[in-house]
Structure prediction request, 1104 residues.
Amino acid sequence: MDLSPLQRARYEYQPKLPAILREAIDQVVPVKGEVTQSSTHQEQIKALFPNTYGLNKISFEKGNNEDIKKKINVGVILSGGQAPGGHNVISGLFDALKKANPESKLYGFKGGPSGIIEDNTMEITADYLASFRNTGGFDIIGSGRTKLETIEQFELAKNTCQKHDISAVVIIGGDDSNTNAAVLAEYFLQQKANIQVIGCPKTIDGDLKNDAIEISFGFDTATKTYSELIGNIERDANSAKKYWHFIKVMGRSASHIALECALETQPNVCLISEEIEENKTSLSGVVDYISTIIANRGNKGLNFGVIIIPEGLVEFIPEVKALIDELNDLLAKKAEDYSKFTKTEDQINFILNNVSLESKEVFSILPSSIQMQLLMDRDPHGNVQVSRIETDKLLIEMVSKKLEVMKKEGSYTGKFSAQNHFFGYEGRCAFPSNFDADYCYSLGFNAFMLIASGLSGYLSSVKNLSAPASQWVAGGIPITMMMNMEQRHGEQKPVIKKALVELDGKPFNYFKAHRDQWAIDTCFTFPGAIQYYGPESVCDLTTRTLALEQEK
Amino acid sequence: MDLSPLQRARYEYQPKLPAILREAIDQVVPVKGEVTQSSTHQEQIKALFPNTYGLNKISFEKGNNEDIKKKINVGVILSGGQAPGGHNVISGLFDALKKANPESKLYGFKGGPSGIIEDNTMEITADYLASFRNTGGFDIIGSGRTKLETIEQFELAKNTCQKHDISAVVIIGGDDSNTNAAVLAEYFLQQKANIQVIGCPKTIDGDLKNDAIEISFGFDTATKTYSELIGNIERDANSAKKYWHFIKVMGRSASHIALECALETQPNVCLISEEIEENKTSLSGVVDYISTIIANRGNKGLNFGVIIIPEGLVEFIPEVKALIDELNDLLAKKAEDYSKFTKTEDQINFILNNVSLESKEVFSILPSSIQMQLLMDRDPHGNVQVSRIETDKLLIEMVSKKLEVMKKEGSYTGKFSAQNHFFGYEGRCAFPSNFDADYCYSLGFNAFMLIASGLSGYLSSVKNLSAPASQWVAGGIPITMMMNMEQRHGEQKPVIKKALVELDGKPFNYFKAHRDQWAIDTCFTFPGAIQYYGPESVCDLTTRTLALEQEK
Prediction:
């Protein structure tokens, strides 16, 4: 395979570590910190995790540590969607493992969690790893979305580990995967299987975040890539002065990506799903909000702009969510009746005659192309595929109609022409920024330190991330500490709480304080492409979200 | 307005010039080279351009040049679609002008060619320019698509120039704009208006290219930006192993962008419009070609891949082009009859009953969403808006159907799931690569040298571009040299010939020699984001297309 010049150059990059992890590896010892507990549901979670609840926080300090040189085999899993930096977690883990004992081995379970169940296992050697250092993607061992949840799976995982003499597994994943890591850790301890489990916080969505996790890896690089593109489009909009660009960005459950991109690029509009849900804004309320801004600019002769839309938006608009729920329910219960209709008109009439009055109204105002998407793009369980709904096009059509009305009323004198974009896959596998390269390498290195300390059910934690890497603080956090009980598929389950955009948090407040000006004026900022070389101010800064959160 | 860290840093960048332009500006003199002629239609073009035909090529050498210090006012126009580097053409022009005489002034005509007609004129000062150096976009003075073609427009332009004592105009544009620059230059000479006109070769499409122009500016940066994204998507495809990504890239008339991106990223499929036209490949031929590759990979268990599609593809497929022409004709002639139908079915039946048998067949096999696009998205003249046709989705739907058939026949055993993307606006206003920053600055600087040499109807030319900038060769080429006569709107017109992808050229041949392997194997290359700092091998290389063309 041919290599790009950047790929060649990135192989040479040496990621930065927190100061304590730069010491000789046998001169670092774990220190027990405070005893932890979950913030809610303490009794329930304690009962479910007798062996891994209430453990101490862990940090590291200088000290003699001969034990670390013990030969050990470790397995690693990449779980779920790609995020830039996964390869560096594995690099850091590998380098620490081999520093401690060159005879220790690192195994990769291929294709995600199914790899450990099906024993799809490969040894990760120095040579093999060399071609993945500081690169994006999860292609080193592949990823997958199988969930490790059942006792049967746990037993198969145990067998695989025992077969390869693996005594620790590192699971690199999002909130669900780390929840499952905690359950697996607990199971192995209960079974006295002698297999430790350590989690690493991954997700470009940024919704795995709490007191112990300042940022999930990949969020920095992905949002920088989207912001590069949004900035380029802003510049184009401001040069051509004739298009409104509606840009949908990834983020189903939370709008961290949209918010971070807005902080980086200062668009005219950025919708935040959490705010729309909080305010119970209706679909026509959203359309009115956008239309008013477009009209205000248009009336000043500014017939262009940029609008950022979070992918999951429609699920946060109360009456659209109700419609989708009703559709799912209706088409599940009356699948047979519905399947008799072949003409679109008949299908639509069937829907209109069988949903509530509110949902009928919502469905009726949707553009026909979106009605079709709701009816036709269904997943194998018959559910509406929300991620396939072209929210960007939906809003363009509805805003366009609204502006026509406003034009007739005389409240809008501009011209409206729109382009739509969706950015998701474009950023999930970018070469990790220096921040993500360093952070991930540190997370992986640190994961080994937790393993070598005999811990299980911990999450690799690296904090103080808005400071230079040398001042980062490495340690471990019991995963149970981040849990609460939530209703999942009709059952109360212990899960890591998803971090939504906090409407009283500093990043949102900064946005809120500026958005009215960004709306009417042209305040675009152009971040440009991620830089890996050159001035530190250009190459090593992490997100605006983190900077604002950690602002003193 | 807030500035991004990269924007701040880019202000400090000092673009590189060819060696001769680094001399003291009064120590450089023009040298006449060979007399030129157009490659075809010599007599006709000579007759149309009595004052600007058959001029000499110009280069520069060391020599005493007191004349250059004369005070002079120059105007500049950005014409047509944005391309990275436009701001640097203006910077180079400004710096040379002020070096020669600090009292000389540079004026910008705002909003494209209409600015000179309507006297929408502003002085570009050092302070104002400072915030645009080495940045993308055309927002310094804006751009527009008005064509400078009529005597009336020329007279208005003359008045504007005389009002501001402007004696030279630099037009930064594509093939049409430079054609018009030549006509304007000729007109001003005929009128003895004492206004020189110099052109600069801009277009991300790469189709303004010939013996005198090795590359149009912006092509390098735009294709690098698209290639960054395509590489990221390839990495995602290879990590998740579950999607085929259909990626449409800009390029209506020529497939240079698609080809360059393919050379940079080695996708499984890249369609080249010129080849499809040459081979008279049918739509089902294109679908079969793609489906076969998907099936071959799927049968090996590789249910993922990346396909690059040039934006203008459908116009190069003979029977689709015929259908579009027929539709335009039919809906123009029978607009009234057609407008009576409100139901889609009736509209479609009307079309089917009124087009030729061949077009009826083509229309019938199109997915209904594309049929709708053909019927509904029409420009103000009633024409089908080809650029709005979602070719990526068209191919996904048709390939999907073909694969279902192959599955039933037993020749395909894989799974097919697809994502579509369109990259255009994402790259037109990126921060110019070092290559484009240097090249554009040199083009602008050089444009002033041509003005100072008293020339008109010339294109600013900088050659030997695959060598380091110090070895670049600056000079001027009479625009008439690049012309031929072509049928435009029913008339024979002198125009600069559009450069299509040459099917016997080195870049296409390289692609052709490798594409079968790229199709079946996974040979993805990941270029990553444009780098402005760091190793020269990463930051200063220009396109693969140019490297192959200039390969010894």
Notes: The mean pLDDT of chain A is 95. The first helix of chain A runs from residue 5 to 11. Chain A is about 45% helix and 15% strand. The longest strand of chain A covers residues 28-35.
